[in-house]
Amino acid sequence: MTADYVVIGGGSAGAVVASRLAEDRDVSVLLVEAGGSGRHPLLMLPGAMTFIKDWSRHAWLYSTEPDPSRYGRVDTWKRGRSLGGSSSINGLIWARGLPRDFDSWAALGATGWAWDDVRPAFMKAEQALGFDASERGQRGPMWVEEFRSPHPLSLALLESFGKAGFPVVPDINRAQGAAAAITQTNQRGGLRQSTETAYLRRPLPGLRILERTRAQRLTLVDGRAVGAELRRDDGSELRVAANREVIVCAGAIESPALLMRSGIGPADALRSIGIVPVVDSPEVGMNMQDHPDLYVEYAVSRPTYSDAGKWYRLPSSGLQFLLRRGGPATSPGTHVFAYGSSHGRLDDPDLLFFTGPFGQIVDGAFTGKQWVYSVTPSICRPYSRGRVWLSDRSASVAPRIQPNLLGDERDLALIVDAIGMVDGIVRRPPFADDLTGRLRPKEGVALSDRDSLAAFARSAVATCHHSCGTCRMGSDGNAVVDPSLRVRGVANLRVADASVFPQITSGNLNAPAIMVGERAAEMIRSA
User: Catalytic amino acids?
Assistant: First the structure.
């Protein structure tokens, strides 16, 4: 099987790359996806995701190594395993990030990736009709809208953010600094829009998609990528050839793993598991970043979505969806999205806040007597770095992951600061009018006791499922890919997904990953 371009991974970036390349009717594109379609009814309806029984059909379920920065905690990392990738299972948040994020990329050696360079790609991807057309895309595939039915407590909390000094803005994706707003989502008519539904479900005669097929390794000949070795779920194997390029878009875990299985990575580590090094690239799998995620939970006096999955709530939720395409069934992962500053300079935010009328309720099962609202602080650009590596040459053995989410003490200090900020926000009216107590950390924990809060944070912080950076882009010789996304040391091979981020962006990663896909396709078509 031969195509001009072989794209490995049909997720947030890969679906974009394959779709855009296939717009050229003289080009053939083969898209290889380890999963199947992401259009499962329970995935399309955001609030129904809790009813998914067999997540392994739709997601990679990675078990991490014990994290020494969090008392040895082991997490399950869920990443999309279907067309649309993690855009098929995520919280539906559309967050470009801050302009300074991309200016930092350029300063770190990703020449040509400053804000002014990437802004057109964001606009090309968006169909954000309710926003300023001079700043937001109007004709792109990805439908972007302000969440239509925020919970009343979310609207109250937005006011409380304002009273705490956060500028309340109409468009969080135009924010330059600290700001708060109703979140923007990838929903249309209350249903999820992934990169599968937005980019791949249209006539593309030159595109062929292989579902339930996984890349085992790349085929490299005389320093060039010429194809890949694949295995289907039924156990059959095949080889595919690329006349022009191979583009790896398998995500922050699988992209470095595929490179390493193909002999591209830290040479000594590859030899130790029986892989012959082709390119000694010591940073493959390094530089992994994520947003540390911590639920601060409050008891409130009015009903929230704490029990939205209970049988007695289903008729009401279904009726709200049918009548106005709203309610719990359409709830994204965040209702109010905010940027904040631990140091008081509003033009230089370093904290993120995700909020919603739900919680983890870690102190016991929901009994119907306790309504929960959560404010989840995180860090815009954390300092901690983790890594991904292989312990076996076989693709059937999962990569090993060390999150190291709080490995840098500066991140722990920021999270502790953020917990105090959250408490100050929720205790302002009008949200405070419905506040009945703090559940997590418990009311008895003094917010002035930084040691106790630090211990709580180490035990409670988890992944925000925003892994990136493991195939770092840069101009230096140690970068895995150059600013044109070409893998150093191998011709006709690029990586295009969140793994190339030099530094994590301030917010959810779906929009920046799609932007990378748009820019990758432009670079390839103009090569």
Answer: 466
